[in-house]
Amino acid sequence: MADKSIKTLPLFIGGEFEPSASSKKTEVYDPTTNEILSYVPYATSQEMDKAIEIAKEAFNEWREVPVPERARLFFKYQQALKDQQEEIAKILAEENGKNFEDAKGDVWRGIEVVEQACHAPALMMGETVENVSRNIDTHSILQPLGVCVGITPFNFPAMIPLWMFPLAIVCGNTFILKPSEQDPHTPNKLAEIFQNCGFPKGLLSVIHGGADTANYLLEHPDIKAISFVGSAQAAVSVYRKGTSALKRVQAFAGAKNHTVIMPDADKDQVIKNLTGASCGAAGQRCMAISVGVFAGSSSDWIPEIKESLSKLRPSSWKDEKADFGPLISKSSKQRVLSLIEQGQKEGASLLLDGSQFESKQYPNGNFIGPTLFDHVKADMSIYKEEIFGPVLLCVRVENLKSAIEFINKNPYGNGTSIFTSSGAVARKFQHEVEVGQVGVNLPIPVPLPFFSFTGWKKSFLGDLHAYGKQAIRFYTETKTIISRWPEKDQNQSLNMTIKMK
Length: 501
Ligand code: NAD
Prior knowledge:
By secondary structure, this protein is α/β, with parallel strands linked by helices. 36% of the residues lie in helices and 22% in strands. It has helices spanning 45-62, 67-83, 85-96, 100-118, 120-123, 159-170, 185-196, 211-219, 232-244, 267-279, 302-310, 330-345, 381-384, 400-409, 423-432, 471-474, and strands at residues 11-13, 16-18, 25-29, 36-41, 127-133, 136-144, 147-151, 174-178, 204-206, 223-229, 248-252, 257-261, 289-295, 349-352, 371-374, 391-397, 412-413, 415-419, 437-440, 456-457, 460-462, 476-484. Strands 14-15-16-13-12-18-19 form a 7-stranded mixed beta sheet, sandwiched between helices. Helix 8 (211-219) runs parallel beside helix 9. The structure holds nicotinamide-adenine-dinucleotide (NAD). Nicotinamide-adenine-dinucleotide is lined by residues 151-156, 178, 180-181, 210-211, 214-215, 229-231, 234, 237-238, 252-255, 286, 386, 388, 414, 455, 459. Nicotinamide-adenine-dinucleotide binds next to helix 8 and helix 9.
């Protein structure tokens, strides 16, 4: 039974927040305490139809608004997000649990994408070739698609929605966002700030719900394109359903990211970076480093990595000294605990066990302490599954060649990195590794939005124009116009002399 004193989040449709008529809702928890923050409704099909209808109507006018005018509104949005970064980060940290610096970073990385939307007039330029044949010129222009949908995960509730709707909308589209049901307050806040910047109503709607809600939207005949970010299983389902409904789809999926440690690397740098990249945000990052691949004698450093990890202390986002926060839900915590148990059963050496961690101040939070496994093999469950918890796995290999072979056999290809002082080693690694983002002497290689961000293999499905500047291509159609020009001017205007009075 729902507690009537706890509010139910509204939907955001056509520029207004409105209560959902749905009888189905679920709790949104504070993962630090497991107290209920609010309920999130699962929008009804009538509410989704209404949002789509409004978005279709708004599209007809919005697409005619000059591109610089559209971009100018995003300058206002960028400033408003900057002004309210801390306020958004507080809402985000409370419902997501990540520490406050990470929460501010989540908002900031989104703001950087909004900055790309401000560049739309330059990014939306087409191409021209004069004289493709005698007196024939060809030029291409980019035009918006219509109503687009975004389905986003819990782990970056500000950044990932901001990867999508600003670029879609600046291209002239309208957008329906279906954010994670686990931290829906942040996207509502982003929508509120958006509307307060003076955008016409109906450009953005936020529809709450779960997988069924997402499926309704992605199969709807009036939806033209779908951007998805989430787990591997859901990505496959979204990609299959969306493409079989003949829609444009891009799906960022799960990951298993490796860092190679060469014996010639800077040891202190390796220890510091592996510690942060594996356990930061409680390991709930698609670019978290979850596997250290130790080549040759670099495995001698594992005891010092253990010592460094053991100093990390998870706590509330309100605690400035917290190294990371809780997992998003009780069920996520349970899943990670059972993987840790499975890892031991399957023969990996558990060097540091975070499963027994208890927070005195927040005994009900979903905390797991830093965890380290050594002697991990490719057929173990802890290696095959994305753990999404503060767990680092150590794999020992002979040399660079075997490290690259090991990584390339993994079905995922989101991010990877190498620590070495040799330029030749780094060059060989970046050339041969089959992964989308590669770091050299840095652990989490997330590009800024004027580059692309695209996982390889099972980490990404569909259209690769996925992020930042590149996404302009995903959210537009290219129209190519070929024109033949008359060689002679029937009206003789080429030779005309204009008589001035
Ligand atoms: P999730 O797949 O459970 O949920 C993501 C979104 O999809 C939510 O909005 C959810 O309601 C919806 N959803 C869930 N199942 C669905 C289905 N079968 N059909 C349609 N929609 C569905 O993911 P999560 O737990 O919220 O996020 C964590 C996952 O996201 C991790 O696997 C992580 O690696 C991945 N992720 C990937 C990237 C990337 O860039 N590749 C970035 C962030 C997160």
